[in-house]
Each structure stands twice: as structure tokens, then as C-alpha cells.
Amino acid sequence: MRIALLGGTGDIGEGLALRWAYDGTHEVIIGSRDPERARTKADEYETELDSRGVEATVKGFANEMAADRADVIVLSIPPYHVGDMVEEIAGKLDDDDVLVTPATGIKRDDEGFHYHRPNAGSVTRIAADAAPDEVPVVGAFHNLAADRLANLDRELGIDTLVVGDDADAKEIVTMLAEEIEGLRALDAGGIANAPEIEALTPLLINVAQNNENMNDLGVEFK
Amino acid sequence: MRIALLGGTGDIGEGLALRWAYDGTHEVIIGSRDPERARTKADEYETELDSRGVEATVKGFANEMAADRADVIVLSIPPYHVGDMVEEIAGKLDDDDVLVTPATGIKRDDEGFHYHRPNAGSVTRIAADAAPDEVPVVGAFHNLAADRLANLDRELGIDTLVVGDDADAKEIVTMLAEEIEGLRALDAGGIANAPEIEALTPLLINVAQNNENMNDLGVEFK
Predict the structure, then answer these.
(1) B104 Cβ partners below 8 Å, 6+ apart?
(2) Has residue A36 got a pLDDT over 90?
(3) A210, B109: Cβ pair inside 8 Å?
(4) What architecture is the A2-210 domain classified under in CATH?
């Protein structure tokens, strides 16, 4: 299976790319608006993995080409780009592809971070509304701290929640999530249940900011 | 210190009453609309604690009288009663009392459970708006499963998040929360940050319902 990380040059995309290449058994490709940047970052990831004794091939492409080549496409981009990005790559998607969205809307004020719920209901819903009917959308990886994920020295031991309206697509994403060591995937139901998952991300930041020694928090459901 | 659990005859109130009487060092009193029911439940709690070798005095009163007698008043009542209840007991509150609200708005549809955000922003905000200016309101205990809390055989090992705009009041509630064995209190900032905490409760139910062997879930931030 081939996994494309669109926006895979930073934030959560970088962490997922590194963890999948390190722990997983699938091919990872990096997408970026700028294909040169995608190639540079892909080389950096290869070097980082090589320094840890893992020989992995990570290639970089323009987003559209990365989407074309992949079976699972992760939209690791800001929430306000999600709808446009899905429309941009729609022509490259097949009915056996799976779109994955980890983005969440966050606004900040003096008090802290808050969930900025889109009119559509959730960012996951925006992706689903923009996707071709035959391409399933799964929400996952919303509540992972980017820096922690990208640092292979840091243990996870946390959960990610998976939502979607297509059981097969959810199963694929669950399988991929659990290839990452220390990450457990839990089913949170359909896309209608995405808002509360997305709202957990600003909460994690608020808890991290108000307590000592709690950076890059995740959660375990227990 | 004397803690009143208004609506302490069931749900989260029952669990907090039992845990505080079992693990804590403070006097616990039960409030109910019906004082006879409060006394009956208080007797039941004493019997339950006695069966575990703990000699505790738990008394029951009408809500207003319970509030009058207590230093910390926990509004363990449905969210749509919170505003009215605070107004009802307002005359009995002193400026060194602390009001605590664990309630959250939840609506259910075919897909699952969702956060029903009140117009005021959060249930915690409703309580704060209804309270006399000099009485601080703290949000806490939103994300604890009632049955698990009320079953003293079940271990916790989970977190509760504390929000409020009065640091001293938060400190008191944090201290009380951590008297419960296996419960860790984390600071989540001011009352403006309450919506995301309240939204975590329906998410916990969705996760419990979609995964095997995950009843009465809590979370650990890690």
C-alpha cells in the first residue's frame, strides 16, 4: 500500500511520514505544493531514518501527483485548505482510494485555545462533502502533537480516534494507525461524531499550557 | 471542610459522595429536592461505607439547606437545572463558598452523542452567570463515568480537568479532587475553556459504544 502525506513537509504530516517509514511496512510519499520542497524533505526523512538504521525510500512530489500515486491520502494541511485541496486532487482519486483528514479548526484568544467549528459541522465533514461520492473519507490523527510524533525518540503510548461512514476505509486507516508503535486506534463512530474529536485538540493545548511538564500531550482512553 | 453534593442521590453525585467519604478527610452531605430521599440515600451510603470498614457520617438535606451548611457545593444536577438551582441557593452562599459544576449538555441522535453547547457558551458559564459575584464557580468532574465512580471496587487512574477564573477556588477543588484515590486534577485554564471539556463527555460515550470492553471510560492526559 502506498501512503501519501499531502502537506507532508511539516506539522503532523512530518511525524506520520517518519513514524510510518520507521515502524510500518508501506511506502510513504510526501506531497507539497512545491515539488522541490517535497523532494528536499523526503531526502531529509530518508537521512533521519538511515541514521537510525532504517533503510526507507521516501519520495517527494507535487500534491496532485502524490495523490495520484497513493492508495491512502492524508490531508495534513491547514483546515481552511481542506475543501480546496480535495477538489484539486479529486480527478486523481479512484474508488479504492481512502482520504484521511487529521485537521481541526482552532482559534486562540486571551484565555486559551478553542475549537473553531466550521459551518459544515467539522473539518472531517468538509473533506467528505468535497470528496467524490465514491471516495471514502476517514477522520483520524486529530489529537496527536506534531513535535512528539516527529521525534522518534519519544514514546507515544496514546490513542487516536477514527471516524468515518465507510467501514472498510476505517479498517484500513485503523490498521495503518496501529502500525505506528505506541499508537492505539479506537473507533469513534461516524463522521457526525467528528466535532467532539476535533474539539479535543485545543483542549490538549490548554491542558499542556496550564500544567508543568506536560508538553505535546496526547490522551489514553481507559 | 464540608462538601455538599446537590443532586447527590444519583449519577455523578453518588460517586463523588462515596469516593470523598471513602478516600477523603472532609464531611460529605447529600442534597436533594426531596429531603427524605436525601436522608435515605445518605443512610445507604453510610451502610455501603460501613460494609467496607469505613465509619463515615453522611447526612441528607433539602438542596437549599445542604448548600447553606457547606463550604463547597457541587451541582451534580442536569445541565438544564443548573441556572435555576444556583439562583435558588444564592441566598445561602457566602463569599468563602465555592460552587462546583460537573454538568455538561449532551444530545443524542442516530449517529451517537454530541455536545449540546448552551447559548451561554458552556454549562460552567451558566453557573458562573447565575452565581452571586462574590461566589467563585469552578468546573470539574465533567468527564467521569458515574457508574465507575460509584463503584468503589473499580480503580480510576484517570484525570479530571479543572477550570475557573478564581485561582484560590480552583486550588480548593484541585485538592479535593486529588483526595480521591486514582484521580489526578489538571488545570485547564479559565471558564472560557470549559466548552471543550464539556464536549469530551459525549466523545467518551461514543468511544465506549464503538469499542469492545471499554465501558465507563475516562481519560489520562500523557
Answers:
(1) B79, B115, B123, B142, B197, B198, B199, B201, B202
(2) yes
(3) no
(4) 3-Layer(aba) Sandwich (3.40)
